[in-house]
Amino acid sequence: MCGIAGFAVSGGFEENLASKEAEAMAAALSHRGPDASGVWIDSKVGIAFAHRRLSILDLTKAGSQPMVSTSGRYVISYNGEIYNHEQIRHELRGNNFHWRGTSDTESLLAAIETWGLDRALKKIVGMYAFSLWDKNKRELTLVRDRMGEKPLYYGLNNGRFFFGSELKAFRAHSQFKGDINRDSIALYMRHNCVPAPYSIYLGINKLMPGTYVTVPMGDLSRTDDINPVHYWSLESVASNQQRNIFDGSQEEALTELERLLIETIRGQSLADVPLGAFLSGGIDSSLVVALMQANSSKPIKTFTVGFEDEVYNEASHAMAVASHLQTDHTELYVTPKECRAVIPRLPELYDEPFADSSQIPTSLISKLASSQVTVALSGDGGDEIFGGYNRYIWTRNIWNKLKWLPNIMKSFVALGLKSASYQTWDRLYGLVDFAIPNHHKITQAGLKVHKLSDVMTASNPDLFYRALVSHWKCPSNVVLNSREPKTILTSDIGGIPENSIEQRMMLIDGLSYLPDDILVKVDRASMGESLETRIPLIDHRIVEFAWNLPLDMKINSGTGKWVLRKLLGKYLKKELFERPKMGFGIPLGNWLRGPLRDWSEDLLSRRRLEEEGFFEVNAIRDTWNQHLKGQSGLEYRLWDVLVYQAWHQANKD
To answer: By mean pLDDT, which of 116-130, 321-335, 443-457, 511-525 is the weakest?
Structure first.
């Protein structure tokens, strides 16, 4: 895994000065690649590539980047892993390549040189973001992987075209001007992240998953008009696969899924450095670890972070799974103080405002794993691909009951639900908890009831879901001088019929929540510790297979991830994984009222909010005061504001 960066200037530039700028951009990404750095420049054309290397395959200098192809036509700066690169080399065997080393970077370059970019992209399997310079055509092309595991920003700023893995590389260039995009703040307040293709800065975009963009070097002023080209589209996959549903038996589906997962995990276990896995004890990570261990001749290394608060602690479940599978398991119990110590690092780690509070435990487990391994496999993605979130089930059930009610009745019921506190609902749920099967139990019942009250008046299932997953319901009313742009969440999606409520929610999450939140969280937390993470469940072949399955193989009798559960049952006893779903959370509300109160008061002070001028002061102050008085459910909205304020403080000029 690596960090890439670069810039282009029409008409060329002075080489020594450009080299220093490129080196500074690379240095800003040293956490992504602590092992080596490199710069490649064509001063006459005006193109500069910078690279930081985390050595995973071919630890020798033969794998160094930026890398020039055998013919000299192409130059690449690449971040990622091509898991089938040895098969690619086998296919290229008859083309008389003189291989310099064994890196997947060289394999990717050879594939592009032999087959062209489009054909090469269709053949490769992996996660990646790269910049490619074609000397013959004088074209710069930027490419991002199918599901969006690896980040890539780009855009014209102050007469220069910038690109790179993280925005901190842009800020390292002396001529970059980071003007805040207020519309992006509004998006952030809804999503708790800035969704692609937007970024926090005006004129800077994120490349969408499964696309590439070719930059017109002759006239960089035209870059505002360039449109990314899809070489793979999750929306198209969902639509196409649902037209020709898998018609085999459940046993055949399980056999094929197991084959695909074993093949994927075998490919993702390829490394010339120590490798392990995150293990929460949940279905997804347990399945990944079970298949890793079943295909390993020695105990694999697994890692879990535990918490003192049992509401958020899964370490005992992970230990039980690790003991059954006989992995080489490491668990670390961290104190609230250790968790809170991560908070000052968040603006640096996440580079633009990012407020998924599970970023804190994700950072801690990444730090733990990096002390022993350089690569860790993760179970992320199973919920979005195989229907694991409880909200997929609830939305259908609740909508079917609510759609017949007049709006005035919905409003009345919503008020009734909210009239009781979170704590009251938790106590009521506790009275009936004993009678509920394990796989239907829920945690934080009061929070979920209050969420339901917020969305009951929606007029259709898509609006119901949008309201359910939005933090601030009308963010443009809270962010001054902003107008919220359309995103996947707030637009109509095609390909899935409107009555396929669960499938539409899964597609929305796969297009937005997964790449913009989950994958960002994992990438930045792990790379902040120079740890490469790999995510088998979102390999595009598994994603395509999952979308080919009938819904009842994913959500069956009110239970999500049915096919994953059945497969895991071959390796683990049910009692080891059948329990209420837990998030990777922290007691955020209590912290904001307690040990983080002074920090919060400073960032949310009326004086500071008025001076900085981003937020409607009364709305923020009222929310803060209600939270201090004990109203539950406001902590996540406040966390959005606090993280933005902390980020702005750390990055203002």
So the answer is: 443-457
